[in-house]
Design brief:
This protein has about 475 residues and is mainly alpha-helical. It contains 19 helices and 12 strands.
Length: about 475
């Protein structure tokens, strides 16, 4: 195991934590944590018009909910702008960059002329090789002096060797005329200064890698290991957008998918370990490697997410699941559970969590243990309480008064009363659910009786029979 692995997640705080960004963060987290390395968080807040404290907090909240802990304090890229500018001037002094005095009008004119003549519109600055003595006293930008010949090869752990002709790369701006650094410069300086060894990010940044490599080479800094992962697409194979449904991590939290399930599901979006679909964090950390990432875009599939969530809900310890439900209620601004409700949930969990695909589904099934008399019955439950069924419930109640409170005895007692009326147990079940839960979705009637106990069972049956 190598402890010198350093990865980073570097979101721009211009909105919520996108599900694609969450997966990128997860991949970086898994790679670092599985190797005893360091996972850093950098907030790329250089776009001062669009960056907001609220968006930064939303990203931190999303990562925290997802269970991705980072090392040290989050780093603000904007606060490091002086260091970025220092590197640009250092490159200028070493001859790896130059001052460009071309105006926007001149650049636009160059591109229009090139387009009209069928040439490349890549701007070739006339100031690239002009001596300092011949510079005017005018505003300028600092541009990298990129090689004009040969190729740049990005040895990518996912995409393979990617070769870019240097004549396709421009002398990108490092420092604007107002002295502020560009994103391309800031990213490289930050990655170097933070000791980042592996840059794992979306493949929409692949072209940036070739341009950023120019800065690494000019400064004599080692390039990080590159790994550009395909983006997430919707079920229809198109780029993920609002039409596909939830985009932000907080939306998945509000839908009641446990963080452990989201980590499992997101890990499998574009990465595989044999045929393993369901796994723990410990297994993911042990197995995760860049070689397991595919080149094709992953497709979001809510049915698979529900399957993964169902597995994790079923496997979670009862007390942990109650705590997870409490966090879900807080996140969705629902009333907190009383201690009695928490105790009831814990007692009922054995008959609640199997096959529940989300926390709201589990809570719906748990309604019987969270409610109090008088029960507020829904329409289907009210319809199940006919004159006949209420009469049978009235008959059943004294039979249960002194019955042994075991599943076998309860089932035998209820079956015996049903048979007296030429009914099978299944025909009486809707009325019993209506009496005990007030909802058609619930555990078995006998599980409910065992969980709420003799006294409450008899009270609810009596109440329903009298309505």
């Amino acid at each position: 195991m190598t402890s010198d692995v350093v990865t980073r997640f570097a979101p721009s705080p211009t909105g919520f934590l996108h599900i694609g960004g969450a997966r990128t963060a997860l991949f970086n987290w898994l790679y670092a944590r599985g190797r005893g390395g360091t996972f850093l968080l950098r907030i790329e807040d250089t776009d001062r018009e669009r960056s907001t404290p609220e968006a930064t907090q939303a990203i931190l909240n999303g990562l925290t909910w997802l269970g991705l802990d980072w090392d040290g304090e989050p780093i603000s890229q904007f606060e490091r702008r002086d260091r970025h500018a220092e590197v640009a001037r250092d490159m200028l002094a070493k001859g790896h960059a130059y001052k460009c005095f071309a105006t926007q009008e001149e650049i636009q004119a160059f591109r229009e002329a090139a387009k009209a003549e069928g040439r490349s519109t890549l701007f070739l600055s006339p100031w690239r090789d002009v001596a300092e003595a011949d510079h005017p006293d005018a505003p300028y930008v600092i541009r990298v002096k990129a090689p004009r010949e040969g190729v740049t090869v990005i040895k990518d752990q996912v995409q393979g060797d990617v070769t870019i002709r240097n004549d396709q790369l421009d002398d990108m701006i490092l420092l604007r005329s107002d002295g502020t650094p560009t994103y391309m410069l800031a990213v490289v300086v930050d990655d170097h200064d933070m000791g980042v060894t592996h840059v794992i990010r979306g493949d929409d940044h692949l072209n940036n890698a070739a341009r950023q490599a120019q800065i690494f080479h000019a400064m004599g800094w080692p390039e990080p290991v590159w790994a550009h992962i395909p983006l997430i697409h919707g079920p229809d194979g198109k780029k993920l957008s609002k039409r596909h449904g939830a985009l932000g991590v907080e939306e998945y939290a509000a839908m009641g998918y446990p963080p452990a399930a989201m980590r499992n599901y997101l890990a499998r979006l574009g990465w595989s370990h044999g045929d393993d679909e369901l796994f723990s964090d410990a297994e993911a950390k042990e197995w995760f490697d860049l070689t397991g990432i595919g080149k094709s875009p992953a497709r979001l599939d809510f049915k698979k997410l529900e399957h993964v969530a169902s597995h994790h809900i079923g496997a979670m310890a009862d007390d942990d699941l109650v705590s997870e439900i409490e966090r879900f209620l807080v996140a969705t601004q629902q009333p907190a559970l009383s201690q009695a409700q928490k105790d009831g949930l814990a007692a009922a969990m054995y008959c609640l969590k199997d096959r529940a695909k989300s926390l709201p589904q589990l809570l719906e099934k748990a309604h019987f243990v969270l409610t109090e008399r008088p029960l507020d019955r829904d329409e289907k439950s009210l319809a199940a309480l006919t004159d006949v069924s209420r009469g049978i419930l009235a008959e059943l109640t004294p039979q249960l008064q002194n019955a042994s409170w075991t599943r076998d005895t309860l089932e035998a007692t209820v079956s015996e009363v049903a048979e007296r009326h030429d009914l099978k147990l299944g025909k009486l079940a809707p009325a019993l659910r209506a009496a005990l839960a007030g909802r058609p979705v619930s555990p078995s009637v006998f599980d409910m009786m065992l969980v709420i106990g003799r006294e409450e069972t008899l009270a609810r049956l009596t109440e329903a029979a009298a309505e």
